[in-house]
Automatic annotation (TrEMBL):
Keywords: Hydrolase, Manganese, Metal-binding
Assigned EC number: 3.5.3.11
Gene3D superfamilies the record matches: Ureohydrolase domain
Protein name per Swiss-Prot or TrEMBL: Agmatinase
Similarity section: Belongs to the arginase family. Agmatinase subfamily.
An example Gene Ontology biological process: putrescine biosynthetic process from arginine, via agmatine
């Protein structure tokens, strides 16, 4: 049964996630804080990630509130103002960290919409600071075509190609990677050095999806970062580096479900959408993926409001 806030395809604001179905909640009442971050500073191939968050928000108006199992929006959706990305990368990361920290202060789950993959670092910093205060650790689960473990790329340690290096080397976070099929020798060495769990695309193809992807000693709270190029290029062409051999829809959802078995979600992001004019299905796929992740989070157990 829908909540009293459900408005079901009435007038809506395309700058707010799923406002076609729900009256936006106040920040302190919402279970989800959707945080758009239109960052595009270090893209190295196809551009367009600055338009990604707005495209996801617009496409979300075409979603059904019911995701097939539950209706995560009934827990309350608040779409924050877009993070101002017209600044040096250090300043932008501080702004993302502050927006994420605000969500955590409101006992809400941060949902970051990118923007290039560098945006993840700002969210991870806020969550790491919270974990240091509460003593509740979390691990990172990454879906991606690329390992993003370079120490630096094109002169920047804050490149989208280095974001996971920052997570493991600077923040000391456990990391599990899925669907990678493009990485360099340095990244293989970094995986060994930091004990990064990985299920690359060829292994998933040859051996099938693992029943228990995460070991028992992996943290019980997960931050899921989903670069849309983790999906196969035929399903997701609207990204800077679309790559063949990726995941298809139900494979991705099944892996997420299995990763979350007995665990909960600390936060999430969907990044690297670079919309293509007239290609509506890619924007809708990214919006539906965001909504699906929110549904998984809801069913795994959301933070309790005071």
């Amino acid at each position: 049964m829908s909540s009293p806030d459900t408005v079901c395809h009435q007038e809506f604001d395309e700058s707010r996630f799923l406002s076609s179905e729900y009256v936006p909640a106040r920040p302190e009442k919402a279970a989800f804080h959707i945080i758009p971050v239109p960052l595009e500073q270090s893209v190295s191939y196809g551009g367009g990630t600055a338009r990604g968050p707005a495209a996801i928000l617009a496409a979300s108006q075409q979603l059904e509130a019911w995701d097939g199992i539950s209706a995560p929006g009934e827990a309350g959706l608040y779409t924050a103002p877009a993070v101002d990305c017209d600044a040096p990368i250090g300043t932008v990361l501080e702004r993302i960290e502050a927006a994420t920290a605000h969500a955590l202060h409101c006992k809400a789950l941060p949902v970051i919409l990118g923007g290039e993959h560098t945006v993840t670092l700002g969210a991870l910093r806020a969550l790491a600071a919270e974990a240091a205060r509460t003593g509740e650790p979390f691990g990172v689960v990454q879906f991606d075509a690329h390992a993003d473990l370079r120490s630096q790329y094109e002169g920047s340690i804050y490149s989208h190609a280095s974001v996971m290096h920052r997570a493991v080397a600077d923040l000391g976070l456990p990391l599990a990677q899925f669907a990678m099929r493009d990485f360099c020798r340095e990244e293989v060495d970094v995986r060994r050095r930091y004990n990064v769990l990985h299920y690359d695309a060829d292994i998933l193809f040859r051996q099938g999806l693992p029943e228990r992807p995460l070991p028992e000693d992996f943290p019980r709270r997960l931050y899921i970062t989903f670069d849309v190029d983790g999906l196969d290029a035929s399903l997701m062409p609207a990204t800077g580096t679309p790559s063949p051999g990726g995941l298809f829809w139900h494979q991705a959802l099944l892996l997420i479900e299995r990763c979350l078995k007995g665990r909960s979600m600390a936060g999430m992001d969907v990044v690297e959408l670079a919309p293509l004019p007239g290609l509506h299905h890619a924007d809708f796929t990214a919006a539906k993926l965001t909504h699906a992740l929110m549904g998984f989070a809801q069913r795994a157990g959301l933070p309790r409001k005071a």
